[in-house]
Amino acid sequence: MSTFRINSDRLLEVSLENEKILALAGSMVAYVGNMKFEKAILGGEGLFGALKRKVSGEGMSVMTITGTGTVYCAHEANEIAVIPLEKEKLFVESSGLLAYDTSLKTNTTFAGLKGATSGQGLFTTTVEGTGSVAVLAKGGLIMLEVAPGTPLFVDPQAFVGHKGNIQQEFVFDVNWRTMVGQSSGESYQLKFNGQGVVYIQAAERS
Question: I need a labelling partner for 7 at 20 to 30 A (CA). Which of 126, 173, 175, 183 fits?
Answer without folding.
Answer: 126
